[in-house]
Structure prediction request, 228 residues.
Amino acid sequence: MSRSRHFFDYTVIIIFALVLSLSYHLFVFPNDFAPSGLPGFGTMLQYLFNFNVGYMTLIINVPLAIATYLLVGKKYAIKSAVFTLVFSSMLVLLEYVDLSRFVYHTENGTSIIMAPIAGGVLSGVCYGMVMRRGGSTGGTDLVAALVHRAHPEYNLLWVIFSINAVVAGLSYFVYGFEFEPVIMCIVYCYLTSQVSDMMLKGFKEAVKFEIVTEQPEELSKALMAGLH
Prediction:
């Protein structure tokens, strides 16, 4: 039962790594905007210097995965590394595949906003499914895990928001000093966050925990000291 569960987990992770890499080639790269997280930096470098973002994601994620393996958790790090390896490899390999029949792009830009909408939704689905299998999409997620390890009292939403804000801001300068790529990046980030959040939480608005104990003061101190 345990082996079949692991096999299923890794199968899901690999499938959605393939889906996300395909999404980049169909919706992100042809429409000149940066996606969310650390891959956003790689996408901008690819745009400026023609250095494939697949190589960049590997360069970024290898040290992050090793640090996560040593400091956070082995299973989480391994599953994240598997996703990153498949995702990065497919980003490189798909450069040699003719996807022109399927690429979403409009020459006059009248429907270009649909690219970050479609890409953001797919990214959110991939993120949610991988997280449900105990892994992550790497990049920002691994940074957040390491920050949480050192400072569990920090709100990780602000860590992720800060990274995405920098990506959105830099895209103004990278893509010809225009606001459209900034807006497209924001739309992509927002939809990724909303869709993944919905997949992880479902339609629950809150979760309540009740602890019954005869030692409330001791428990309170242990929680504050141990978990900050």
About this structure: The mean pLDDT is 89. The first helix runs from residue 2 to 28. The CA atoms of residues 61 and 139 lie 6 Å apart.
